[in-house]
Write a structure and sequence with these properties.
binds zinc ion, single chain, 102 residues, little secondary structure, two-stranded antiparallel sheet
């Protein structure tokens, strides 16, 4: 193994304190060797839990910490009950173009 945290140190030098790939990434990137560590390939599903996790890189065997941030988003733009009202409210300018496909 090369110098510890070599990849991360280099990335911080080039990109600043939140370097691309080491921050907000979809897969953890090893701070030692810079390889992407695939969660499903490594059975690292515990990484989906919010918090800090100690792992060992499958590429260079270096140990490092993965900090997981979980975010939730909520959609309310699809409402089934809204279909009932479309007949009255939805017809505007182009009512003449309505075709029935039989
Ligand atoms: Zn590594």
């Amino acid at each position: 193994m090369a110098e510890k945290f070599q990849a991360l140190k280099k990335a911080i030098e080039e990109d600043g304190p939140l370097p691309d790939g080491f921050w907000g990434a979809s897969q953890p990137k090893c701070p030692h060797c810079g390889e992407i560590c695939d969660i499903s390939d490594n059975d690292w599903y515990r990484l989906y839990d919010e918090g800090e996790h100690e792992v060992e890189c499958p590429h260079c065997d270096g140990e490092f910490t993965v900090s997981t941030r979980v975010s939730h988003s909520f959609d309310t733009c699809e409402q089934e009950a809204m279909d009932d009202e479309d007949d009255e409210a939805g017809q505007g300018k182009e009512a003449g173009n309505a075709r029935s496909v039989d």
